[in-house]
Amino acid sequence: MKNLFKILAVLTLIAALPFVCGAETAQKPITVVSPNGAPGLALATLAVEQPENYTYVAAETISAEFAKAETDFIIAPLNAGAKLFKAGKSTYKLAAVVTWGNLYFASQKENFSLADMNGAAVTLFGEGTINSSVALYSLTENGVTPGAVEYLAGAANTQALLLSDENAIVLTAEPALSAARLKSEKITAFSVNDLYKAATGFDGYTQAALFVKGELAENDPALVDEFLAKAQEAVDKCQSDVDAVAEAAVKLEILPNQKVAKSAIPNCAIRFLPAWDAKEQIEATAKIDLSQFGGEVPADDFYYGQK
Asked: What is the Cα–Cα distance from 65 to 304, expressed in whole angstroms?
């Protein structure tokens, strides 16, 4: 009889194991890596609650995260993820677009207007990137032709030029623009998104996106969808609760202070759109400079979820 009880106890334990393992799987923390700056704001209110699961890196190093394949989700430039996926160097699929352009042409020139850029020297950042391609395309489509185009390394560099040379015309980005405006009230800025919308009808271009690891997408789509619902709530707060996002961004050291954060966040065009819903806009952005997407628009297998 004692042996029978032992056997029953073992069988009960074995039967319970799948449920225990399932509970452990469900509780597995989601890990995310993101660049600092505007893209990092998208999930800031989630990251501040579980900072151990969110890693922020320099923007120029984010592409390396695809090859490492160590995290469940990556926020990165959409074109970078698409290009690596096409080349077979990444298994990460596009889950959603989260930022739609934070670029601005700016100057301290008195009564600065877009017309002042015709025939003038304009300093951009990000040579050979989709950002500079979209910026120049937007100017051309709105009848603006600079006399010369020069490049600096990043938005921080063009911000410094903007502040040091009152005659300079530069391409900058939020949050660098908000930080510059705190130092000079003379700055006038024009949104590249406004120019892009005038040219295409789309409210911003597909800039940064949320990518999901292919293995996770295949093995546990329910967990992926659960996280994406939370991600959408966090992204929505960038419009509905700027104070909460600003507070989180400062705590996470994404932005330097509340004043810059509250000014910059509304101008970063942070919105959540699932991959398939964004397909038309992704292809419109890609066609501006297909070299940034590996030579062609992304194939259907790049998109996560159902059509």
From this structure: 19
Superfamily of the domain at 30-100+206-302: Periplasmic binding protein-like II (3.40.190.10)
* pLDDT tens-digit series, residues 100-117: 999 999 999 999 999 999
Question: 30-100+206-302 and 103-200 share one CATH topology?
Answer: yes
The domain locations on the chain are 30-100+206-302, 103-200
Q: What's the token pair of residue 242? A: 């700027």
- CA 58 from centre of chain: 13
CB 36 within 8 A of CB 56: yes
Confidence of residue 27 (pLDDT cuts 50, 70, 90): low
What is the spatial distance between Cα 18 and Cα 41, in angstroms, rounded to a whole number? 38
Sheet of 208-212, strands arranged across:
54-57, 32-35, 73-77, 208-212, 93-99, 270-274
Are the C-beta atoms of 187 and 108 separated by less than 8 Å?
yes
- Look up the pTM and report it: 0.90
Architecture of domain 103-200: 3-Layer(aba) Sandwich (3.40)
Q: What is the pLDDT of residues 244-274, one digit of tens each?
A: 999 999 999 999 999 999 999 999 999 999 9
